[in-house]
Write a structure and sequence with these properties.
The chain is of the alpha+beta class and about 260 residues long. It contains 5 helices and 14 strands. The protein has helices at about 15-25, 45-50, 120-140, 175-185, 225-230, and strands at about 1-5, 30-35, 55, 65-70, 75-80, 95-100, 100-110, 145-150, 190, 205, 215, 220-225, 230-235, 255.
């Protein structure tokens, strides 16, 4: 079984690439983030033609998440139970589904913007709600994973230059502590192998030639419980999909399971 996560940075803008990648990669379940569309704009019909059902949580031009599956889709949960509001609004950042033998969450963790910004406090609160929401599945016997754009680099090795991020979000002790608390529910970091270079970065800014210079970050993560981690036979970053005109600024992270 092949499971992947991908911040697509607009499903409508990237639709031809998404459809081509699904066909070429043989992915069974794809967790998608940053849809940037309304429910009516989501390409459900095009995905059905490829054999994929979709659980979608989207409200408009920002955020949005989905789980795409060609192995079944059941017990869907849209939204993060008990999650905080931002400026009085529940943002569409989480959706869960059972896909065959595996249950997954697709998550798009808040960015945080700046350490002293209200969005940063919201990010930490959101992590707390995520931990509470997944604790039961994390401790269970069914393969389970939380996949998505976490907007946190777990260690200094997960950024191209720690000094370049000094004082910025994505690398702070508070964010990394939130990740550690999430792992404390029984999840572990399924670290993919890079297809090029030494570190499996998953995101490269569009600016300043970051991708050609490999100035990246590993912020798209797969956190799986013990049955999930035990079943992993391979994991890699599909760096090739970050290349070319019209690419997302994130690459898919692909995990193969023996289930």
């Amino acid at each position: 079984m092949r499971i992947a996560t991908w911040n697509i940075n607009s499903v409508t803008a990237r639709l031809p690439r998404l459809l081509a990648w699904l066909e070429s990669s043989g992915t069974d379940v794809l967790c998608v983030q940053e849809l940037k569309c309304t429910p009516e704009q989501f390409p459900a019909a095009e995905l059905r033609e490829l054999g994929y059902e979709a659980a979608v949580h989207a409200t408009g031009r920002w955020n949005g998440v989905a789980v795409l599956s060609r192995v079944g889709l059941a017990d869907v949960v849209t939204g993060l139970p008990g999650g905080p509001l931002y400026e009085g609004v529940e943002e569409p950042r989480a959706v869960a589904a059972t896909c065959g033998p595996v249950r997954v969450w697709s998550v798009y963790v808040p960015n945080g913007r700046e350490v002293d910004h209200p969005h940063f406090a919201y990010k930490i609160e959101w992590f707390e709600a995520l931990r509470a929401a997944v604790a039961g599945d994390a401790a269970g016997e069914r393969p389970f994973a939380v996949l998505g754009d976490y907007n946190v680099a777990p260690t200094d090795d997960d950024v191209y230059d720690p000094a370049a991020f000094e004082g910025a979000t994505h690398v702070t002790p508070a964010e990394r502590a939130a990740l550690a608390e999430l792992r404390g529910t029984g999840l572990s970091d399924v670290v993919p192998r890079p297809l090029k270079y030494d570190h499996p970065f998953t995101y490269w800014d569009y600016r300043q030639l970051c991708f050609p210079k490999n100035r990246g970050m590993r912020i798209d993560l797969v956190y799986g419980n013990a049955p999930f981690a035990k079943a992993v036979s391979d994991a890699y970053v599909d760096r090739e999909e970050r290349k070319g005109k019209g690419a997302s600024d994130h690459a898919p992270v692909v995990v193969d399971l023996d289930v």
